[in-house]
Design goal:
By secondary structure, the protein is α+β, with helices and mostly antiparallel strands. The chain has helices at residues 13-21, 43-50, 59-69, 93-102, 107-111, 114-128, 136-141, 143-153, 160-170, 177-200, 206-210, 222-252, 255-262, 268-279, 311-314, 349-366, and strands at residues 3-4, 26-30, 36-40, 55-56, 133-135, 288-290, 294-296, 299-301, 306-309, 371-372, 394-396. The chain has a single domain (3-396), classed as Cytochrome P450 (Cytochrome p450). The protein is built from 16 helices and 11 strands. Helix 12 crosses helix 14 (268-279). The relative contact order is 0.18.
Length: 399
């Protein structure tokens, strides 16, 4: 019998993953839209799947499979407008698109952003310090990465509230097609105008650079530019928002770990890796499909099936990480899959790590007595299979 993904999955997916893992590393699950998909939950199986060329990512083929399995769904002409980017392509097209952005996120270039990120962080904490009870997401975790990625790409920071609204609808749970269609149309129109403006009047920013031909003469088409801008804006802030939010919540629910880290801020970079392992910002990695039968454990997934790899489940596999449901800042979190694995490993990982390290260092230095100001059971989570993130995080900055 195929299990249906229930509403309580979004509050705590790990309850489900622990139960599923007892019966094997891969499971066929019916999603809220009625379409059955496969979810991989074991660590070695997830790591292997993320690098398996038989699990393809071509978004046009994925779209066709979804519609074939859900024939009553209306076709959306805008559905692929924002999605033909490097995360949804296979070799050799993937390599062509990725090489155009890899340089922008090289460690040396990311490190050069540190002074600016530190200034933005201090300004946000100054603004927070006007009261004792605040929403740490709205006041800090959301505006920090949005401001940074907007500056990197050359986008007006005034538009960041619109980005957040669009993102919330775009990464929401499968089934809310009307909200997703409206957000897609609005963001596609905005990004198309932005790309045209960068082509006409390029500046000293990443998006302007992407409008120019590469050294070998290759040049992105307008649709490719729009999709790339979408990926960089959404992935460039949404994951970091929830890395900060989920990491902060993990500390707030474990006051001993919060005191431990506040007393030794040099340990923050390693703590960030623990946050990524314990409750990272991505639950199910973006969708794949089987180009041929693929055996995982004792299960053979047929050709033409939709497959998700659960990064969250893999990162709590007890066979890979001892005591996985406990936040242990001294444990070795290396090898976690929070940023993926293989050719689709997150290009922005160095920037996310830098932002999170700066954010937690400054936050705990300024407010070492930070406390949760809501019962943890009353916290609300976004109903998304992609993003693992809170809707709000009320805290008290001081006792």
């Amino acid at each position: 019998m195929v299990e249906t993904l229930s509403a309580d999955f979004f509050t705590d997916p790990h309850v489900h993953y622990r139960r599923w893992r007892e019966h094997g590393p891969v499971h066929r699950i019916r999603f809220p839209d009625g379409v059955e998909r496969w979810i991989i939950v074991g660590y070695p199986e997830a790591r292997a799947a993320l690098a398996d060329p038989r699990l393809r990512k071509d978004i046009v083929h994925v779209d066709g499979l979804v519609r074939a399995k859900r024939p009553a769904a209306a076709a959306s002409p805008l559905s692929l407008t924002l999605l033909t980017h490097m995360l949804n392509t296979d070799p050799p097209q993937h390599a062509r698109l990725r090489k155009l952005v890899n340089k922008a996120f090289a460690p040396r270039r990311v490190a050069a952003l540190r002074p600016r990120i530190e200034r933005i962080t201090d300004e946000l904490l100054d603004a927070l310090d006007t009261g004792d009870r605040v929403d740490l997401l709205r006041g800090f975790a959301v505006p920090l990465p949005i401001t940074v990625i907007c500056e990197v790409l050359g986008v007006a920071v005034d538009d960041r509230d619109a980005f957040r609204t669009w993102t919330t609808d775009l990464v929401g749970v499968v089934g809310r097609e009307a909200e997703r269609a409206r957000a897609t149309a609005a963001m596609a129109a905005f990004l198309r105008d932005l790309v045209q403006a960068k082509r006409s009047h390029p500046g000293d920013d990443l998006l302007s650079a992407l409008t120019l031909p590469a050294e070998d003469g290759d040049r992105l088409t307008e649709n490719e530019l729009v999709s790339m801008a979408f990926l960089l804006l959404i992935a460039g802030h949404e994951t970091t928002v929830n890395l900060i939010g989920n990491g902060a919540l993990a500390l707030l629910r474990d006051p001993d770990r919060l005191r431990e880290l506040s007393a030794d801020l040099s340990a923050v970079p390693d703590a960030v890796e623990s946050f990524l392992r314990y409750d990272g910002p991505v639950d199910l990695a973006t969708i794949r499909y089987t180009a041929e039968p693929v055996r995982i454990g004792d299960t053979e997934i047929p050709t033409g099936e939709l497959v998700y790899v659960s990064l969250a489940a893999a990162n709590r596999d007890p066979d890979r990480f001892p005591h996985p449901d406990r936040l242990d800042l001294s444990a070795d979190a290396s090898g976690h899959l929070a940023f993926g694995h293989g050719i689709h490993f997150c290009a922005g990982a160095p920037l996310a790590r830098l932002e999170a390290s700066i954010a937690f260092t400054a936050l705990l230095k300024r407010f070492p007595d930070l406390r949760l100001d809501i019962d943890a059971a009353d916290l609300r989570w976004y109903e998304s299979t992609l993003i693992r993130g809170l809707i709000e995080l009320p805290v008290r900055l001081r006792p």
